[in-house]
Amino acid sequence: MIHLLVSCIMGLCLFSPFDISVQFNQIFGVITAHRLLLIDMLLGGITGALEITITYPTEYIKTQLQLDEKGSGNVGRQKQYTGIIDCVKKTIKSKGIFGLYRGLSVLIYGSIPKSAVRFGVFEVLKGKMVDERGNLNASTSFLCGLGAGVCEAVFAVTPMETVKVKFIDDQRLRQPRFRGFFHGVRTIVKEQGIGGVYNGVTPTILKQGTNQAMRFSVVETLKDMYRGGDNSVVVPPLVSGFFGGIAGTVSVFGNTPIDVVKTRMQGLDAHKYANTLNCAVQIWKNEGPLAFYKGTVPRLGRVTADVAISFMIYDSFMEYFNKVWP
User: Fold this and answer.
1) Where are the Solcar repeats (predicted)?
2) What is the dihedral of CA 158, 163, 166, 170, to 10 degrees?
3) In this structure, what are the phi and psi dihedrals at residue 228, rounded to the nearest 5 degrees?
4) CB 221 within 8 A of CB 229
5) How far, in Å, CA of 289 to CA of 296, rounded?
6) How far apart are CA 62 and CA 300, in angstroms?
7) Which of 123, 180, 188, 301 has the most crowded CB, counting CB atoms within 10 A?
């Protein structure tokens, strides 16, 4: 974008007044065409950083419970927790209150591009699929959300989630190895190659695709019901947040089994599984069907708050930007 602007401005001296007018129209046409995408990605990034900082402790507890395997025979590892409260107590007792924020830096670094890609791609797809009134129906909003989820899974979520899970899993060892974010990433890449941060890419695509498909579909449907089909009606940010909370709840019950498989595939013991399907089969065989819903309660609390905050913050910032940059 910057290179294009500089090149166009430097070329102005070579043209007549009429040509200059044409050049300016082209420049501002490009700016206008990219304005919404840039704003969507910027606001998505800000939203991601804020929501993950607020809700991270529940993500930490959820991941610990999902990694807490029954009858694990690994050296230095054993089943540690009886439930959510026990996990919180033991974490605070052994590592202090900030132990609940172990791995937060990974998600901060990753949440900005994740949310930027999510909202940016969704708005691009939405712009191509809206009807003559500017609305999406249930199926088109589902497809737009699906596309956004797949893109964020590939470009941001998989490496971020893999590193996060390995950091949290590392704490379960009697002698943790990772001394910090950069040391941990270097160690993972050195030992496993770049593919080491792309463990579990298939279940992550499945998880994020279904996540965003359900969330955006529910939110867009509820917004359309609120507006009564009139796209000119503004949905207040608090209402958007409420709709987001409902969407988050729906997505938790819809794809927690995928999240459990994803977490196992990204842990330090991922080598035990031949592939995603093998991981699911082993969980079913060794731990039973209820194991696919491990961490549901803390995930429900985090995701409901997460999605509610995301949509509320995003709509609040979008409302402000539309006023200062109409």
Assistant:
1) 35-128, 139-225, 235-320
2) -170
3) 65, 30
4) no
5) 13
6) 9
7) 188
The Cα–Cα gap between 235 and 319 comes to: 10
Note the Cα 118 to chain centre separation in Å: 7
Rounded to whole angstroms, how far apart are CA atoms 39 and 205?
25
Angle at the Cα of 195 (from 191 to 201), degrees rounded to 5? 135
DSSP H helical segments within the chain, as ranges?
2-10, 17-67, 84-95, 104-129, 138-152, 158-170, 181-192, 201-227, 237-266, 276-287, 296-324
What is d(CA 170, CA 164) in angstroms, rounded to the nearest whole number? 10
Encode pLDDT of 127-148 as tens digits. Answer: 889 888 888 888 999 999 999 9
| Residues in Cβ contact with 4 at an 8 Å cutoff, skipping those fewer than 6 apart | 27, 30
The whole model's pTM is what?
0.67
